[in-house]
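ESCALATION

Customer reports they have been waiting on this structure for their group meeting. Please prioritize. Original submission:
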Amino acid sequence: MVHNKFKGLGIALITPFKGGEVDYTALRRLLDYQLSNGVDFLCILATTGETPCLSAEERKQIKDIVVEKVQGRIPILMGCGGNNTNAVVQTLKTEDFTGIDGILSVCPYYNKPSQEGLYQHFKAIAAATELPVVLYNVPGRVGVNMTAETTLRLANDCENIVAIKEASGDFTQIDDIIKNKPENFDVISGDDGITFPLITLGAVGVISVIGNALPKEFSRMVRLALNGDYSNALTIHHQFTELFKLLFVDGNPAGVKAMLNSMGLIENELRLPLVPSRISTFEKIAAIIKELNIKC
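Update from on-call: job pushed to the front of the queue and completed.
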């Protein structure tokens, strides 16, 4: 039986840029920061990493640097998805996944497949790899929602589909999955702002954006919640309520890059078509970081 290694606080790792190029020095600095502040796993080359705007060579170098830095200390989940099923399957069969502990595969975007199309897409992906597969349902980005019924069908039919990153925001749907899932399948929050309530329902962790900047603080909230200490976890959750909103008001990862820049960890650069957050947003984020007295 294939087990899910991706529990607790996972980081949806950003890609730092400097002068239009990937800033590999800042990437290594960020990895040291994450590894020394209690994160449970990393999620690389996915949405928050601006992966669609990276070249194949940049993606390979980022993957190699992360694997080299981590050295097996925590699991690494890597994005591998798309809206061309055959292309994803070929990638899984031909590319080097040494050092990678599982793949995160997003629902196909733009094509708007039916539920049967989603099922067949992910079934083909699961069959193409021996790695654990984490599904990624994010209808706000891809234009189609994978229903609880389809998720549960995949969870029961494909042994190496071990979890879903749920970012639909639909509590009824997510609760349906948690209630009816097989024992060897987990739900991971895909939204920082609702991680606390989802853990109280039975989610096993989060793939976090805010964790890029606040790994120590957010991991404490996640662990408290997972251990049933809901009162103290809720206190931390409420400390970050305003930040949750600010992180996404100008799009992701603009907000978290503004936060990391205000902390002196990276340049405040994104790749087009994404642009940095507005000055007003940046100033609000910087003020909250100062108030929270966050130290790098």
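Sent to customer with the following note: The chain has 13 helices and ten strands.
Escalation resolved.
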